[in-house]
Amino acid sequence: MSRVHVEILQIPSGGYYASETRYSWVKEQLEATPPGRKMVICKDLLAWPDGAQYDDLPSGFQHTFLTRNPYMTFDSWKRAINSGIDDDKKLLLGDIPVFYMPEGSFYKEQYDLYKYAKDTLGQNPPIVDSEELLANPAGVMKAYFKTIGVPYSDDYLHWKPGNECMEKLWVVAKEKKYGQQFDTAWHGVTFESASFGSPRKCPDREDLPEDVVYYADLCMEYYEEMYANRIKPL
């Protein structure tokens, strides 16, 4: 969203290599954000491949969570990782390296962090369901911004297509930044969009591949509890 200012210190967008950083360095940058910034948004995945723990999370931030029905997640994920791959070489979800598929397939990791933010940090983290957001962007966004105490604007429902926002505002490692521009299987639709897309119908369980069903079933209990506690559209 191009009107939301996302700035951390004076680090240029794409101005460093991932190999130069550590979790502790990211924590320091976020906690040192100068006063006067309108908003700092940090999006992260829930994989800790080298033993990082909650102590590496920056303090003073409001945790929020975006979740999705596991049947839809793993169905989309499998299609994305196999984009452009010949049929006889396509991957199963179990073939994905642990960094991209941690032990809890991200859902348990997300649930554990949600409980940590709630029970240890004393927060009431808003949970947004992705398909509900697509079905009612204005209603969900109004509820979300009200929950986090930030004024809502209809401007947040539309943006300029392309990667200008990423070029000017994102603070992200060089290889990640440029990789996202060319990885159309994952980000192509995002860069072409100007507003929220339409929600998908959740596929029937019996129509899904065996590996998709396996991972989705493992995660369903975590998703269902978080879904029950999601924010409702206004």
Keywords:
234 residues, two-stranded parallel sheet, 41% helix, disordered N terminus, 2 strands, mainly alpha
Structure characterization notes:
With 234 residues, the chain is mainly alpha-helical. It is built from 9 helices and 2 strands; from the N terminus they run αβααβαααααα. The chain has helices at 23-31, 70-81, 107-120, 130-135, 137-148, 164-169, 174-182, 184-192, 210-228; strands at residues 65-67, 127-129. The chain is globular.
Distance between the termini: 21 Å
Class from helix and strand fractions: mainly alpha
SSE topology string = HEHHEHHHHHH
Please report the total strand number as a whole number: 2
Give the strand line-up of the largest sheet. Answer: 1-2
The mean pLDDT is: 81
Sheet with most strands: 2 strands, parallel
The global form is globular
Tell me briefly what this model is.
With 234 residues, this protein is mostly helical. Helices cover 41% and strands 3% of the residues.
SSE layout:
Layout: H1 23-31, E1 65-67, H2 70-81, H3 107-120, E2 127-129, H4 130-135, H5 137-148, H6 164-169, H7 174-182, H8 184-192, H9 210-228
Parallel strand pairs: 1-2
